[in-house]
Specification:
The protein has helices spanning 5-20, 31-43, 76-87, 122-134, 166-177, 200-205, 219-237, and strands at 23-27, 47-51, 92-96, 114-117, 139-142, 154-158, 185-189, 197-198, 212-213. It is α/β, with parallel strands linked by helices. The chain has one domain (5-237): NAD(P)-binding Rossmann-like Domain (Rossmann fold), CATH 3.40.50.720. Helix 3 links the parallel strand 2 and strand 3 (92-96). It starts with a helix and ends with a helix.
């Protein structure tokens, strides 16, 4: 039984070959991006380029698909490389452990057939989106998944037709401020998230500056990641 046998029943032999010869760049390997990246591996995408500067922490283990006690402290990009190769030894994986700042967003647009934005931080996210739009690349972006428990409330939509999601609201505002009116697809949730709580440890270290942390579950981030990967595969096939 080959790696792609069950996929081939759905995609067809020509589809399997098309995916094998395709490349996808994934930005962000958190709960959403990691699930998307691993789904692309299991779908038979031939080349996956993953960008993430962070390491696996204990607080990631409740939602990170390759988050285990044994991977705490390791670079997410390295953990993804090993996980991907353990599923499909033939997949081509390129990893980049870089933090994308505003000045280098354009240079971090890797050569790929499709792009998935799963970045959590607002500024790098908007900078990447604008860089992709300027290059007329095909991509999809993930909006907020934190503080939520209902994956069935996730939807595909145009960025300008989203509601409820505060991250989508901030993205739209930043785009308007920079004169960007282009349309692009996103995955967002209509679920109202729970309120974040104060991070006592960080507040103690940063007296006078209140920091808050958002709760998370495994359900919504991973479901969003699967939706992103599904969208990417369908675009590549068609």
């Amino acid at each position: 039984m080959s790696f792609s046998e069950r996929n081939e029943i759905i995609f067809g032999a020509s589809g399997i070959e098309k995916l094998k010869n395709s490349s996808v760049a994934v930005y962000g390997l958190g709960g959403v991006g990691a699930a998307a990246a691993m789904a692309l591996v299991r779908s038979g995408v031939g080349t996956i380029k993953a960008v993430d500067f962070d390491t696996v922490s204990e607080s990631n283990l409740n939602r990170l698909i390759f988050g285990f006690d044994s991977t705490v402290g390791m670079k997410k990009s390295d953990v993804f490389f090993n996980a991907a190769k353990s599923v499909n030894p033939g997949v081509n994986i390129e990893v980049y452990s870089d933090f994308m700042r505003g000045t280098d967003a354009a240079s971090m647009v890797l050569d790929a057939d499709f792009y998935i934005d799963a970045i959590d931080s607002l500024n790098p996210k908007v900078n990447l989106i604008i860089a992709l739009l300027e290059r007329n690349e095909k991509f999809i972006s993930s909006m907020g998944t934190g503080g939520r428990i209902c994956p069935e409330k996730l939807e595909f939509a145009d960025i300008w037709k989203t509601d409820v999601c505060s991250l989508a609201k901030f993205v739209r505002k930043r785009l308007r401020n920079r004169g960007v009116k282009c349309h692009f697809p996103v995955v967002f949730s209509r679920e109202i998230p729970c309120d974040p709580v104060e991070n006592e440890e960080e507040n103690a270290e940063n007296s006078g500056r209140i920091r808050k942390v958002q709760g998370s579950t495994v359900f919504v981030p991973q479901a969003a990641g699967l939706m992103l990967a599904s969208y990417a595969v369908r675009i590549l096939l068609n």
